[in-house]
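Quarterly update, task 2.4: nickel (II) ion-bound model.
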Amino acid sequence: MTMVVQDPAVWVERFRVDGFVRVGQVLDRDVTRRLKAGATRLISRFTDEGHTSTDYWNFDVDEQPPVLYRIHNLEKQDWPEAELLHRPELARLAAQFIGEPVVATAFALVLKEPRRAAGVPWHRDRPHLAPQTACNISICLDAAGPANGCLEGVPGSHLMPADLDVEAVRDAGPRVPVPSDEGDLVVHDVRLVHGSGPNPSDRWRRTIVIEFADPAIRLEA
Ligand code: NI
């Protein structure tokens, strides 16, 4: 299990060595609370009002309502809390890990509905970038652990070659779960080998994920 790291100097070291770190509560609690309320309303547009769009990623289940698992382009959805995604403390935090300057390059709400959510297959987000040039910051909107499908990663896998076999690295392990409390931030290198399990529990697991990168790099390379 990954414990909260309180000291920014240690954050950076853990990120450099492990490729991920749980930094705890960096955002003001009121900011997290407003983001969670906004995220809950966005989800209810799908579950209660039947809203669909190409940004609302979901899968079908036999004879049941579809399961929403991601709202892509979160910053472009029509919700008043979208401005909070641009809080300067998030960019400042990212800069501690990947250096100045940073730019936010992607925003998403990743969600695991109680009992019905599937796991996320193990993968790397951008294996062709150099280590410590881009990171994902997850704003955890719920307490999470292995029981409701929290993030899991293989420490040090962000330093492995771009063409590695993801399943082989996962199976060799160690697979380290990264639990979180509501409001915690978890940061990982986009090269990290990571995934997560399903959510058979009766508790939501929702995270807002923001990717930050050095603006000088080409993300599609
Ligand atoms: Ni990922």
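Highlight for this quarter: Residues 29-47 form the longest helix (19 residues).
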